[in-house]
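Can't paste images in this forum, so I'm doing it all in text. The chain is below; anyone willing to post the predicted structure tokens underneath?
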Amino acid sequence: MAIIIKSSFVWLAFILVLAGCTTGGSSGSFPGGAVKKSDSGGFYGGDSAPANKQRDFDLIPDAIPKHEPLSRTGNKPYTALGQSFKPLKSSNGYIKKGIASWYGTKFHGRRTSSGETYDMWGMTAAHPLLPLPTYVRVTNLDTGKKIVVKVNDRGPFLHNRIIDLSYAAAHKLGIANHGTGRVKVRALDPDNYFGSDDFAESSSIVGSTDSVKGYQPSSVADEYFIQVGVYSEFGNARSMRNMLRQKGHPIYPSSEQENKAQGAPYKVRIGPFQTVDTASTVKRTLEQLLGQTLMLISEQ
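Text version of the structure:
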């Protein structure tokens, strides 16, 4: 059973979150999110789960991705808790793994950063960088459960959380009772969002990166890679890799023997890149060169 944390430090953090909203020029109140502490949960700023939980959350339909114009508010650079954020101009190819939290009664009925009203029973979420609105698929990495939500708010900003789900979305995903959960967040294209997205990311990456001018290997936890293709024959993968290397792209891993040792399917990836913006720019260039849609992958 979650308890309410009432320390002066936590209240100060909550006040700073609201102050960050004003400083950054975005509308609405930023969610602080549910947090896990030791063996018991807690909610910042007096946030909590609703008293009446008697609902069949599986019957709540997922959000349906559709094309929408960017919201008038919430898409400009802003500051929260002493951190500066510059929202992405596009969600194309965005994939990230990390910890999700959720927010509930404290913010229910308030205006979100996009100008919409927050409904803890709706399938929505808050994200620090994705354009508002963006539709994303969130996968529970411990259970495989998937949901689709609409990102219409800003947050979270504490404890390296990557997304704040509405209470209903968190419950449907199976993390509401724990306060947090390990997830994968994938931005969706409204024209093509059906099907599984797990195969291409099922195995880990090993090896080293080619040293190429203009590319800087990332030293932080988040790294972005462009997956050019997955091949059943090593010779085909080697041909593609050689062509990309000749054009100055860093192949990952660089060693053919390391790549071959992994066995089929053979993946051809370039990177890593330190930011999703840089990776997206290179991805668009490669798509024009190859005449095909490529996949942007985030590894932690």
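The chain is about 20% helix and 25% strand. The helical segments are 8-24, 167-173, 234-246, 256-261, 276-290.
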